[in-house]
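thought: fold this chain, then report.
action: predict
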Amino acid sequence: MKTFKLILLSSVFMVMSLTSGMAQNEGKLPEAISNATRNGDAMALAAYFNAKIELVLPDKSGVFSREQAQFLIKDFFDKHPPTSFQIIHQGERENATFAIGRYNYNQGQYRLLFLTKNNGHETLIHQLRVEKQDE
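observation:
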């Protein structure tokens, strides 16, 4: 079932990417979001959270306030401190950007999926999914 969800989600992102007609370097996730993730800095990452964010973690999921999500992401970073983080795919459609990243920690790897929206003044994360990556 997890594999099916991952394939379905990946397919949706691929279709969004292909239909947008955007080049790979357009529709980028803000570098500050990548840096905060790479550094395991929950406070810096939460600065980009929407007031309500859909957060999917290996042990908890739901729609949370910015403050609740920051606490949950801090707990995730504390339990799985990053050794590296790299964006492996990203794209844009209208005012939304998505990015898929590879998050490595000492005991394995996670795949992080970001969905952000730009309202003209700022880019905010509306959804963040953290999925265990089998190697």
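thought: worth noting. The longest strand covers residues 82-93.
final: tokens above.
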